[in-house]
Amino acid sequence: MSTSVSCLHGCNVLWRHNPLLVRLLGLCPLLAVSTRLIDGIALSILLAAVGLWTAALVSGTRRLIPPEARAICRALFLATGAGIVTVLLKTFRLDLAAQLGIYVPVMAGCCLLVAQSAEFSGRHPPALSLRSGAGVAAAMAAFLIPFSAAREVLAYGTLLRDADQLVPALPPEFALRLWPGDQGLAVAALPPGALLLLGLVLAIHRRLTPAPPADRRV
């Protein structure tokens, strides 16, 4: 019974209450660089790393930092985490870092990570904070990865294009080509295409997600 409840809760977080779909937070890197599946995978991993780092530090220091300094410390933890992953990415995956560009360092200002740190980690122990942070990271990946895959398919007709930038062991020509040639919708690789696809996803989400009951209190 508990397993079924946990699965149902997980599905609700990933779809019905997904913060990217409900609150439309953290969409800057999503719309800017999610043109290939590997970009979506890489961004999901980096955002998860920064989010979990921040959640652990905010939770672990919640009793040591006075209330008036907590906002500054949260910003410092986020900036430090984003700086670390930026240096590591440029050291070990330079081509991928060039593709993602400025959107890796600006994760320090990602609204979703800030909200996660402020709303939960500052009031709970590290174990619960890490569990909550993992849920937020999974929710982001559940949207970001399929969204990036859809844009790559529409724009290039491939999946895992340039996958060697993420996994160097793969050959440079590795890709799953869904149809011959390079014919595709060029607009899907541009920001307007991202906005159009996002609008379609949001429309489907609103259609399939029942509206909450209206508050009838006077």
Q: SS-based structural class?
A: mainly alpha
State the helix count. Answer: 9
Distance between the termini: 38 Å
Order of neighbouring strands in the sheet with most strands: 1-2
Q: Percent helix among the residues?
A: 55-70%
Radius of gyration: 19 Å
Task: Outline the structure in words.
The protein is mostly helical and 218 residues long. The chain has one domain. Helix 4 packs antiparallel against helix 5 and helix 5 crosses helix 6. The longest helix is centred in the middle third of the chain and has 31 residues.
How do the strands and helices of this protein lay out in sequence?
Elements: H1 2-16, H2 19-22, H3 27-33, H4 37-60, H5 70-92, H6 94-100, H7 111-119, H8 126-156, E1 158-159, E2 176-177, H9 191-208
Antiparallel strand pairs: 1-2
Helix pairs in contact: 1-8, 4-5, 4-7, 4-8, 5-6, 5-7
Question: Which short descriptors sum up this protein?
Answer:
9 helices, mainly alpha, disordered N terminus, 218 residues, two-stranded antiparallel ribbon, globular
Give a quick rundown of the structure.
The protein has a two-stranded antiparallel sheet with strand order 1-2. It is mainly alpha-helical and 218 residues long. The chain has one domain (22-208).
